[in-house]
Amino acid sequence: MTKLTLSATQHNLNTNHFSPAVLEIIDTLQQHHYEAYIVGGAVRDSLLNIRPKDFDVATNATPEQIVRLFKRSKIIGRRFKIVHIYKRKDVIEVTTFRGSHTRKQLKRTQTDEGLLLSDNNYGSLEEDAQRRDFSANALYYNPSTNKIIDYCGGFDAIQHKTLAIIGDPETRFREDPVRMLRAVRLQAKLPMQIDNNTYQKILTLQPLLQQVPPARLFDEILKLIMNGYSHPSFLALNETNLLNELLPAAAHHFNNSSVTQALYTQALINSDKRVANHQPITPSFLLAVFLWPEVQYKLGQLVQQNQHMPAQDALSHAMHFTIEEQHATSSIPKRFQSMIREIWQLQSRLTRQHQHTKKAKTLLTHPRFRAAYDFLLLRESSGESDSNIAPWWTSFQATHADILAAAKQERAQLNQQRAKNRARRNRKR
Ligand code: ATP
Ligand code: MG
Question: Which one, out of 212, 282, 287, 344, has a CA that is 20 to 30 A from the CA of 59?
């Protein structure tokens, strides 16, 4: 590979975005005679004049050497060891230069399909560059010389707004199929296009995602739906058939029902707007939306098979089977599952209880009332539900704003107390 070293006048990088925390970390590492660079998304985004969302550092110090230098740091990951350094409010990810594998090592760490089970071989800066995913992500910025080192043509790729995988696309996707999801996510968030060669390979290799552990896939789903670009990401996932591997039921309903299409589209657009306005979003809400049509489908089947089954039982079964099926591809952690179930369960209570003022008032104090009401609004405005009750709840909330405020305060106090108890328990340990 040819090495390019770009000076400040050549790269014109906007360094204003770099956090003092990352610069201090690099400085500490360099003072201890290690090589250290800012790499990955932060360099790429700054060259595109976008504020980076986080910072990654690459160094020739090993994870053990890094944690010795920084008090608030820990090693995480097994397949790929990373050090997290906590500085001020930031968490900086520091990785040791990855090396290439010898043939003998590959035999031990690679499955027959080409999947790399472990990637903790250390190497030189040049080798590290080759192990990264896209050329635009393999640029190394040294704050003390103000130079960028480019081994893979990443600077040129950014000028041409191209996302190109480093090396042979098929080999690199087989090593780690999650790179296909990363390509789609980065294309959705950046003014960059996946190059044709890389894109064509995604279209044929998408079933490789089945080899990725469900927990890692769920983490990737979170990144895809929480990044503020969930709508373009979702469309690109569907176009490449990757959606089928991640959320098979959602892919099926989205492609077969215009009502589901409207429901998802509105939910995704709303969610992206909230991120843009710095409003909080919870992954459970979008997951509840994605799986809702399947719950309804299963509910319909159950009722048809057993007309005497009480409605609540039928719903419980439908929810259970839908979540179980989803677990075959990407497992939804328990902490998200309960909120998803509550949003679903509250739908029938919202549509039934509005005539009874007393019951309706109780419902206002439910911790998931707001999410369930937003869900109902979405269902009505997309045409998924014709109950037309959401407007009643809108005015009911306005009249009883005091009840909502009191319930909110009570929950805040409860959370505070829980946090205190947790802190006390941790101190005792
Ligand atoms: P974001 O803006 O989402 O943080 P990013 O490119 O910085 O984008 P990270 O997950 O923070 O994404 O990863 C940091 C860097 O590590 C990437 O830029 C890339 O160089 C490398 N990297 C991450 N995941 C992989 C992977 N699966 N295979 C190879 N390299 C990877
Ligand atoms: Mg990053």
Answer: 212
